[in-house]
Write a sequence for this structure.
């Protein structure tokens, strides 16, 4: 099976979700998403960074330089209160969307 | 600790390098992970890049987003700091509320009045007229070189000019006219102008609707009419379909071809209709009836000077060709804008100058206050400097304080200006063009605020610079010596006093003129008199009919409740539309005068009740009576000026005279002498005048005037109804009370006097405040010295005198400068003065005394405070 393409705007929500537990650097975000989806979603790493920087511009995340486990300098992103709000909103939207799609595709209702 | 504490923002290069670092860290980690999965080094790199996607694009997007964020942060922080500084500024101001209120009020007053005045002046004077290329339009006038009088133009002369002048094109003429509008609504006499075909192009007016006249309109049987915007709105509700329809003018249907734009029209703002001017057969050769207006445009590439040269040549030619009518004759050409603004311009420029003075005084005042404050704080500033506060930081703080002050004053000033701009048009005389459309000009307001801000900043920051530049220890050591700023401050106050003196002198001269003017006897009583002007020619074609209808109308008017008496007259004093006529007068028994030396007098036709109704005194003989009708002996009354001019000290009653042009002279008998009347208002000198009874003249151009018991305006409706009860078709040309008409003749003077008086009062108050502030400050500095003096036995009276003398010492150089300035500047007022010279010594002396008194009073308050000092306490306290 080919990895699924991502619907626009969904990436933001996914990234925000990975930052809930703790601040992450970009590579950490990418690894987390890969891990959780087991590679089912195909996301360009570049798109991920673009999204991170745009969200920082909007104030949903903020960044700080820190040291990764290896000891190298890395840029860590942290969720801000507006980002948390956006995550909640985006999740709810996504759930509503999925439910709507699922209602149509539900086997019982097919003729 | 890096300097990022001071400058927390990242440079562009830094933003880019951070993005690069971030992305390369990612790629390194990815390669590492792939290697662990078994990829070779080259494969891992390739795979990492593949998974990344477009590196260059990602880098660009990230850099751009970071840079935007950085910029926004910088701006937000900057505003944050400004707001913080402003809050500190407000707090510092609030610590000395007296200073804050004085400075803000001073600046606000000055900014407000200056902005309002400049808005009005800019609108009226400097913004271009609503005409096309108005500077190319030229008005032409006849000039009588013998009498030095400018006249309007006779039709024959205009036609000569149109044929012979080449440096002016589109020469056009307008003749005052009027027409009765009937049809829907009450009949109404409309004022208007009959114009030749090029008129609108010459003035530079384009229609709002339809078109102006073309050559066909001058041939058409029905004629054509162009409406003013105001008439179109008032009578036709702004209905655009009026163009092409007809309206009832003089009881015939005339097609409307166009509607003009609102506001300023030339020649008159109250013109309502425009008709095609057709020359009557006699007019073409008529070079005498000078009552028409002429406008033309400079031809391409021609200057006004060249046009004037050509006109002079044409005038010379006319003088040779028509010596009877055109000797002593010249042509005057004046640009249209000058013609329109001629009288308003000098007065407005003067008021602008005056308000500029007020602004200067206010700036000087606030500068003085700031200097004093700066001097007061010099110690504080020096201490802070000594503690390591940088000069830039000190300057920034003072700058902010000044800016806060200027901003507060600016806001208050703008509010004041808006209120004044709303008020001024209502105060202004009717003649100011387009005053009704004046709006607050924000550019001007901005300029005023900037100017005051510049002054505030300059004088607010100076002490800081001085404090930081000079030896920091100096002010600490010599805390109580006179500071260098004092000399500058004295200069400022002296300048203020001088400026105030000049303004007050100007206002004083205007006020004196006004009083002189009101001292003039009008010769009649304008109070409680209502007037109604009608033209009864059309409805009553014969003289007998007109005499009868006037008699019946007067009976009806006198029957109106509240009317004491009624009369009709051909030319009512003060009336803006009075139709005056002149005649030659020759006492019987005197030889015929040589041509050119005939003696001309005013002729006024009046009904018998006229003298009583206007309260014009009878000096000798008898007034007119009802018996003086068409069948009786022809009689006249003469005024005192005429009696003196023609009969010297002899009694003219019973003398017989001939009136009228040679060939159609009429013999009349003088039956009485009446008091002089100033027909044009307080400013106009009485002219020789004779009165003819209406029953022996029968003129149809009449103004009815009634004397009322109560307010004249109250009977207006009843008068109109009485008129229409007798003559339902009769239209009314003009109605007003005599008091309104009188106020109209004084409106311009009153406006100028009022404004100049307000400005000079303001300047006076500001100068007084400035003087007070300086003396009281200087006195405070001298408290220790005064304490010593008192301890040594000086009495409080001596101390007070010493301080007051200091105030006078400021006033004297101020007065000297001010008198000098007045002598130079009041000359500009000369045209607005009446019965008083621009260098009137009495006014100057009074104003000097007033300035001296103000300065002494301003000094007296601190003087009293100093005199009450307790020497023991001042000596003890050093801080």
């Amino acid at each position: 099976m080919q990895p699924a393409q991502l619907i626009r705007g969904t990436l933001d929500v996914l990234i925000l979700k990975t930052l809930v537990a703790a601040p992450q650097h970009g590579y950490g975000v990418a690894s987390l998403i890969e891990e959780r989806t087991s590679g089912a979603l195909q996301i360009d790493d570049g798109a991920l960074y673009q999204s991170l920087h745009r969200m920082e511009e909007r104030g949903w995340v903020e960044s700080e330089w820190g040291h990764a486990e290896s000891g190298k300098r890395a840029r860590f992103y942290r969720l801000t209160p507006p980002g948390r709000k956006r995550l909640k909103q985006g999740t709810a939207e996504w759930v509503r969307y999925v439910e709507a799609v699922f209602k149509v595709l539900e086997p019982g209702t097919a003729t | 600790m890096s300097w990022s504490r001071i400058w927390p923002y990242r440079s562009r290069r830094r933003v880019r390098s951070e993005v690069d670092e971030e992305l390369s860290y990612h790629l390194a980690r990815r390669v590492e992970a792939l290697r662990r999965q078994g990829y070779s080094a080259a494969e891992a790199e390739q795979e990492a890049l593949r998974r990344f996607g477009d590196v260059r694009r990602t880098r660009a997007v990230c850099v751009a987003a970071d840079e935007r964020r950085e910029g926004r942060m910088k701006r937000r922080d900057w505003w944050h700091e400004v707001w913080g500084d402003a809050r500190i500024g407000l707090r510092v101001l609030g610590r000395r509320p007296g200073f804050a209120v004085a400075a803000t009020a001073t600046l606000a007053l000055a900014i407000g009045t200056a902005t309002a005045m400049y808005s009005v002046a800019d609108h009226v004077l400097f913004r271009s007229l609503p005409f096309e290329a108005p500077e190319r339009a030229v008005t032409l006038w006849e000039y009588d070189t013998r009498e030095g009088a400018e006249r309007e133009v006779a039709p024959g002369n205009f036609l000569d000019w149109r044929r012979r002048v080449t440096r002016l094109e589109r020469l056009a003429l307008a003749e005052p006219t009027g027409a009765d509008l009937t049809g829907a609504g009450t009949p109404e006499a409309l004022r208007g102008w009959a114009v030749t075909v090029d008129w609108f192009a010459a003035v530079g007016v384009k229609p709002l609707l339809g078109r102006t006249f073309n050559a066909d309109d001058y041939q058409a049987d029905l004629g054509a009419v162009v409406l003013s915007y105001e008439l179109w709105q008032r009578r036709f509700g702004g209905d655009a379909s009026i163009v092409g329809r007809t309206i009832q003018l003089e009881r015939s249907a005339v097609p409307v071809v166009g509607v003009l734009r609102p506001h300023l029209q030339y020649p008159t703002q109250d013109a309502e209709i425009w008709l095609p001017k057709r020359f009557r057969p006699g007019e073409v050769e008529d070079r005498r009836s000078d009552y028409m207006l002429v406008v033309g445009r400079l031809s391409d590439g021609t200057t006004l000077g060249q046009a004037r040269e050509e006109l002079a040549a044409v005038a010379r030619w006319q003088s040779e060709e028509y010596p009877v009518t055109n000797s002593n004759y010249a042509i005057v050409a004046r640009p249209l804008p000058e013609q329109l603004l001629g009288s308003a311009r000098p007065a407005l420029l003067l008021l602008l100058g005056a308000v500029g003075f007020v602004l200067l005084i206010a700036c000087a005042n606030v500068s003085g206050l700031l200097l004093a404050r700066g001097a007061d704080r010099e110690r504080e500033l020096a201490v802070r400097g000594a503690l390591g506060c940088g000069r830039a930081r000190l300057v920034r703080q003072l700058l902010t304080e000044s800016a806060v002050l200027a901003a507060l004053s600016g806001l208050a000033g703008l509010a004041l200006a808006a209120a004044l701009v709303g008020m001024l048009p209502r105060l202004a005389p009717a003649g100011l063009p387009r005053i009704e459309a004046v709006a607050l000009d924000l550019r001007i307001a901005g300029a005023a605020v900037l100017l005051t801000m510049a002054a505030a900043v300059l004088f607010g920051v100076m002490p800081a610079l001085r404090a930081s530049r000079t030896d920091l220890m100096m002010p600490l050591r010599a805390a109580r010596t006179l500071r260098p700023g004092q000399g500058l401050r004295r200069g400022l106050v002296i300048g203020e006093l001088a400026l105030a003196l000049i303004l007050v002198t100007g206002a004083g001269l205007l006020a004196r003129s006004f009083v002189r003017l009101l001292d003039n006897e009008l010769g009649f009583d304008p109070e409680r008199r209502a007037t109604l002007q009608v033209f009864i020619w059309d409805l009553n074609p014969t003289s007998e009919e007109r005499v009868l209808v006037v008699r019946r109308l007067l009976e009806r008017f006198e029957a109106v409740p509240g009317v004491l008496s009624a009369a009709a007259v051909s030319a009512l004093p003060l009336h803006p539309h009075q139709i005056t006529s002149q005649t030659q007068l020759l006492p019987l028994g005197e030889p015929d005068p040589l041509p050119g030396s005939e003696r001309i007098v005013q002729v006024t036709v009046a009904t018998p009740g006229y003298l009583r109704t206007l309260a014009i005194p009878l000096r000798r003989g008898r007034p007119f009576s009802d018996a003086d009708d068409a069948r009786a002996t022809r009689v006249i009354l003469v005024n005192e000026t005429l009696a003196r001019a023609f009969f010297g000290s002899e009694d003219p009653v019973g003398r017989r005279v001939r009136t009228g042009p040679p060939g159609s002279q009429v013999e009349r008998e003088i039956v009485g002498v009446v008091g002089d009347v100033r027909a044009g208002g307080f400013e106009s000198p009485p002219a020789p005048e004779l009165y003819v009874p209406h029953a022996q003249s029968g003129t149809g151009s009449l103004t009815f005037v009634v004397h009322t018991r109560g307010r004249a305006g109250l009977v207006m409706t009843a008068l109109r109804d009485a008129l229409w009860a007798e003559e339902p078709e009769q239209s009314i040309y003009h109605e007003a009370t005599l008091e309104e008409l009188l106020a109209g003749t004084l409106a311009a003077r009153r406006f100028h006097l009022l404004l100049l008086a307000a400005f000079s009062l303001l300047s006076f108050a500001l100068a007084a405040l400035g003087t007070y502030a300086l003396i009281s400050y200087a006195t405070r500095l001298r408290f220790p010295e005064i304490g010593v003096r008192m301890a040594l036995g000086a009495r409080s009276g001596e101390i007070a005198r010493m301080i007051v003398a200091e105030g006078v010492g400021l006033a004297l150089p101020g007065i000297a400068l001010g008198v000098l300035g007045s002598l130079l500047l009041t000359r500009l007022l000369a045209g607005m003065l009446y019965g008083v010279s621009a260098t009137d010594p009495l006014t100057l002396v009074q104003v000097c005394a007033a300035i001296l008194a103000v300065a002494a009073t301003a000094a007296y308050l601190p003087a009293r405070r100093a005199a009450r000092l307790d020497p023991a306490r001042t000596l003890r306290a050093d801080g």
Summary: The two ends of chain B are 42 Å apart (CA to CA). The longest strand of chain B covers residues 168-182. Confidence is low (pLDDT under 50) at residues 1-5, 475-482 of chain B.
